[in-house]
Design a protein that fits this description.
83% helix, 84 residues
Length: 84
């Protein structure tokens, strides 16, 4: 199914805005916590969020192993923040 040019442009603008906001929030986080911790949290949240959106928006598989794996990522992010 082909998208109309208007939807494609809107998607690119939305993605660009989200990337800018995400980068800015990473910059703000690095002012208060170690860069390695901030980046790990940033990528972990991104990975988990993409996984969840993939399930709900695109019908990606949600088997037990995939869910457990994302829970491990989230647990690692929490432990990194607590160890700070």
């Amino acid at each position: 199914m082909a998208q109309t040019p208007g939807k494609t442009i809107a998607g690119v603008i939305l993605a660009g805005a989200c990337m800018f906001i995400s980068g800015y929030l990473l910059y703000l986080a690095q002012r208060h916590i170690a860069m390695g911790t901030a980046y790990a949290v940033w990528t972990g949240i991104g990975a988990a969020g993409t996984f969840i959106l993939g399930i709900f928006l695109y019908g990606d598989s949600a088997n037990a192993m995939r869910i457990f794996s994302v829970l491990l990522i989230i647990s690692g992010v929490i432990l990194l923040k607590l160890a700070h």
